[in-house]
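Exercise 3.2. Students should predict the tertiary structure of the chain below and write it as structure tokens, then compare their answer with the key that follows.

Predict this chain's 3D structure.
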Amino acid sequence: SHVVKDWDDIVPDPIVHQLKLLESSIPALRHCRVDLFREDHWVELLQGKLRLPGSVRVDNLHFSHFIQSLEILATPDALKFTETLAEKCRGEVIVRETLNEFIAWYQTYEIDFYDHTYEGRNTPLIQNWKQ
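Answer key:
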């Protein structure tokens, strides 16, 4: 009985090459998350970095699109790009959440102002603040 010691012994070279590219692409792909990326981020990745056609959008994205881009995704530059893009997305999520909290607070607060005049200049000052 023959024991296979290495897949390279039985798998054709082009397939081994593709598998190695796929393995090298996984760190970059881990940063590409549907729950984090918005449409503009997908465009930046798909059309910008991966140079896929403009017709490829997140709603019609398939695994085969990533397979077509393995040569790019397997590079350290692609990993850095997806890390940076994911960090940008997380930052934007924090900003959106903070703005939403501020808007919710703003819609429920009450502030009473009174006009203070000093040397001919009128300055509104907070007199009463209720949340």
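Discussion points: DSSP finds five helices and two strands in the chain. The first strand starts at residue 110 and ends at 118.
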